[in-house]
Amino acid sequence: MPPPERRHRSWVDVVVAAALLAFGLVGSGPAARSQGMPDLDTVAYVLVVVACVPLALTRRHPMRTFAVTGLAVMAYVALGYAYGPILFACLVAVYTMASRYPPRVAVPAVVALLGLTAVAVLVRGAATGATGWDQLLDVPAWVIAPAAAGLTVRARREFQAGLRDEQVRRVLTEERLTLAQEVHDVVGHGLAVIAMQAGAALHVLDRNPGQARESLEAIRSTSKESLAGLRAELDALRGQTGQSEPRWPGVGLADVPALAARMRSTGLPVLLDLDACLAPSRRVATHDRSDGDGSRAQVDQVAYRIVQESLTNVLRHAGPKATASVRVRRTGNELLVEVADTGCGGTAHPGYGIAGMRRRALAVGGRLEAGPAPDGGFVVRAHLPVRGSAT
């Protein structure tokens, strides 16, 4: 059974066809008399019926309806009958065909009908004793106008569909980038910590089993956290969460001290300098919104992710003797997040790391700079907008 919308459109076509048929049968005679022409004969009324009845199927078979109705109307014109309501049937058939087919199909069909129209008008003129040249401009207008309207409607429909498709593609791309970034942050950080802890455990396994055990405990804790984050992302990808809440428990600046402690356990010295208004006991509620581009919870999470990724990069690239410092300050409506190290410096490495941090900052209306520090090492500095009361 066809869907209700299609059945509704089919009934509309039937009603239009019936209305035009009634109009043609009732109005053609008066139209002939008003033009000073004799009443229509049976052939004329048959042509009216042939032209109007196919319109009931114009949406299902637009090209066939166009051909049958067009031929009937042109035969009506060529036989010299008075111009009348039958021309409206031609208008509907041409418009529907032009709006349903691409220009490469519709335009040749319209041109063919225009050629047939010119022949019909000239034959009519010869049959009635008139030249018919004055009608070569009037009659084709009943073909050109609906064809132009139909092609315009189709072009607009395709343009709007293209915009919708582009919007869908942008949303899907954004979702893929977000997912890749989340997996990179959760898994990448966890693997870096696990690798360092595993190396430390192997190094002291024989002479200091207690310290090796601590490293193994840290590996277990980090791997559980990473697996939980990865599972949450995969569930979101499969569409299994079905919840409006965040798919991964929210993290923020309140979690930075724990993050620093985890990094210190790998052997990386981390110095924390957090603003007093950003005390670890304070956590931003997910519904608490700022006046900026992102919610305060989003800004809080972005700040944490920037610190996390920056410290992970220090662990990976800065060298064994590097130290790191984390400074978070709020000045007016701006949150400054700065992570610096005393490592070997160098240029930014391509990949998700710095690009992902910059993308996160831009998403909440902020900006991020990353590069070698003047006195050596590497520094990541983010400026994030924060409005309202202190977080």
Automatic annotation (TrEMBL):
Q: Which InterPro entries match?
A: DUF7134 (IPR055558), HATPase_C_sf (IPR036890), HATPase_dom (IPR003594), Sensor_HK_TwoCompSys (IPR050482), Sig_transdc_His_kin_sub3_dim/P (IPR011712)
Where are its TM segments located? Answer: 43-59, 71-98, 104-123
- Record GO cellular component, one term: membrane
Any idea which UniProt keywords this protein has?
A: ATP-binding, Kinase, Membrane, Nucleotide-binding, Phosphoprotein, Transferase, Transmembrane, Transmembrane helix, Two-component regulatory system
Q: Which GO terms describe its molecular function?
A: ATP binding; phosphorelay sensor kinase activity; protein dimerization activity
What EC number(s) has UniProt assigned to this enzyme?
2.7.13.3
- Catalytic activity of the protein: ATP + protein L-histidine = ADP + protein N-phospho-L-histidine
Respond yes or no to whether keyword ATP-binding is given for this record: yes
Fetch the PANTHER family from UniProt: NITRATE/NITRITE SENSOR PROTEIN NARX-RELATED (PTHR24421), NITRATE_NITRITE SENSOR PROTEIN NARQ (PTHR24421:SF10)
Please report the name of this protein according to its UniProt entry: histidine kinase
Write down the species: Actinopolymorpha pittospori
